[in-house]
Amino acid sequence: MIAHTYPRKPRPGDRVAVLSPSSGLPGLLPLPYELGVRRLREDFGVEVVEYPTTRRMGASARDRAADLHAAFADPTVKAVIASIGGDDQITVLPHLDAELLRTNPKPFFGYSDNTNLLAYLWNLGVVGYHGGSAMVELGRPGAMHPLTAESLRAALFGSGPYELTAPKESGDVNRPWQEPETFTAEPEMAAAEGWWWHQGDRVVEGTGWGGNLEILSWLLMADREIRPVEEYRGGVLFLETSEEMPPAAEVYRILRCMGERGLLRQFPALMVARAKAWSFERPLDAPGKERYRREQREAVLRALGEYAPGTMAVFDVDFGHTDPQLVIPYGGRIRVDGRERRITVTY
């Protein structure tokens, strides 16, 4: 497995880039973006630096890559945060200068479509951070969730072990970002059950790899940023799904393909995020959410049973498209302790 290095962390007062490597939604939906930027400045105490495509919808892949190069090459910029995800960051990867990014490593924060860049940095031996977008987590209506803020602050400024906390509440119901009223109150939350363990009778510690399952499937199809399967041996796989809410059958099929490739069995531990189970297109009620998540878990367990029967798994961990959201170090150390029911990451 590639040796990974943690980039030096920023300190309050430092300059931090906010980029849109996927989608320039800050230009269309300024309310959550400007709220997120304000919190970065006022609550986290950093100086925010924007780039030409940060607020520009339809920017070319080449232009978005140029902004990434500018941010990483600038010695006064100490970290890079994605504004939000999207669906075409895979087209940016061919335009990236690997040597520039390798020799100017910065902590990069993003998830969803930013799985592309996180996997790219993983292959360069640079630890990234799965989570913490400007528009969603930092721009959360009403207030940042305390667990999100604590995890993001620890990942952005800190180093060393950080134990993840299972929340007592979670939410996935959104309100329209176009409406100012949305930002007058926090999102609707519901009681959350704890983590669900499968074969939690051991301790596994390894390098984290994974991200958004849909994006990983695209990388696999395009044969981008996927290394020989043996190079993932002994790592901790972490997977999450998006607001597009893929059906359980599709989740199983993606994992089946990863299994046929010999990839699943390389990981002795798997973390699966609490599946987002509500969208404007599919506003499921409470029983519908429970059923959707159960079917997702059954799909994962089916694939593990067929391709990685010895893998330990823990479900409903709050990372990715979750509220609250815990930041996962991509390429960093993750310790999954099934005996004590604890997960500790190293930021």
TrEMBL record:
Residue span(s) of domain LD-carboxypeptidase N-terminal: 16-131
Coiled coil regions, renumbered to chain:
none
Checking Pfam families in the record gives: Peptidase_S66, Peptidase_S66C
User: From which domain of life does this come?
Assistant: Bacteria
**What SUPFAM superfamilies would the database entry show?**
Class I glutamine amidotransferase-like, LD-carboxypeptidase A C-terminal domain-like
Tell me which InterPro entries the record gives. Carboxypeptidase_A_C_sf (IPR027461), Class_I_gatase-like (IPR029062), LdcA_N (IPR027478), Peptidase_S66_N (IPR040449), Peptidase_S66C (IPR040921), S66_fam (IPR003507)
Q: What positions does the domain LD-carboxypeptidase C-terminal occupy?
A: 205-336
Annotated keywords: Hydrolase
Say which family it is in: Belongs to the peptidase S66 family.
Task: Indicate what this protein is called per its UniProt record.
Answer: S66 peptidase family protein
